[in-house]
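Input/output pair, single chain:
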Amino acid sequence: MTAPAPRTRHKFLGRLSLPERNFVAEALRTETVGGVLLLVAAVAALIWANTAGGSYEAVRGFHLGPGSLGLDLSLQHWAADGLLAVFFFVAGIELKREMVAGDLRDPKAAALPVVAALCGMAVPALVYVLTNVMGGGSTAGWAVPTATDIAFALAVLAVIGTSLPSALRAFLLTLAVVDDLFAILIIAVFFTSDLNFAALGGAFLGLALFWLLLRKRVHGWYLYVPLGLVIWGLMYNSGVHATIAGVAMGLMLRCHREDESEPHSPGEHIEHRVRPLSAGLAVPLFALFSAGVSVSGGAMGDVFTQPETLGVVLGLVVGKAVGIFGGTWLATRFTRAELNDDLAWPDVFAVASLAGIGFTVSLLIGELAFTGDPLLTDEIKAAVLAGSLIAAVLSGILLKLRNAKYRKLWEDEERDEDLDGIPDVYELGNPDYHLRMAAIHEKKAAEHRRLAEVAGGESEDGNGPA
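Output:
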């Protein structure tokens, strides 16, 4: 009787394919720059709010927009409902691309980041609820600590100077993409006010027209941008959070190449154009008008004494790390995945703790959860800032402990001795590569021999060192 063939084991956090590596590198480069701007905007908001609070409140409370269209909004609301729609538009494209061309296209490979992200949202929510049930607080903010801010996390990596291997960075990016998807669903399901069905119907008709134009291969930004603004305005007036419009339009874009003659899919092309606007302008401006809260000694003390704020801090710092790490470990056990030989489980825990930085979407959900209580809203924001800061410091320490290992892995990934623009690790099976490397090594050896002969000649003449 023939023995059954052994089941192949999926390699978790293994080397990315070259196209995926290049895409991840480009995406994270933009997000890192945006993350630094986000840090600057958050610090500026805190300084402004705590040194000239009256002017800060006056500016972010300033209203503008056509009231007849239901869009007479404060600058703070324009940032939260308008600019973040751009952020979620990019998130929608990222999710679509991951599903058709990235890690999420393969159900077996997708299981790990999806389970990790779900556990990384469920456990913080559970930690928040338990903290408030035991402390007698409000459970309305259960969703606040469930989000991960990829831009802020990458800014922390840039500040501490760690060289994470591409597989760990891609895992963090995929976690954040799945996290964004479920954050969008949470906002749509749990934070939708009374519905205006006429406006909602108009938004759906606009989305149907948007989809039809894409299907018919109609080109021209001058068609899509005005249509997108109309869809956004109708969605805002419908009672559904307006950022849902951005996600829906992002998900409709085609994110796969139809043939080899097409260098990039339309979704990738548009994401490349819009991502700098999202990371460099939309998200920092949202932070500027949302992160300005009082950080006086009393206010910061309340963060660790009130059940609502303590639940947010514990959810971000403890819940995220335990949830993502535990979910990843369980998924590897049940999917028979093997951890990359170059990495260890403490590396996964360090990245899980980094995901506890939940700045942008956590601030947004905090505003939605406690919209009728401005004081508690500001305290929740302070808790988000405190929790994100603690998570950043903790993950920074953990990542620094392994930075020598990461740097070696990163250098091995980036080495390109034949200078053809492709890292050597992706060419080891290519005969042409080995011929080029043999020629390079022979050239170096010949140069060494020539230098040795010159040095020997100088020594015989008495003009050089013996």
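Residues 1-6 have pLDDT under 50 and may be disordered. The beta strands are 11-12, 63-64, 73-74, 338-339.
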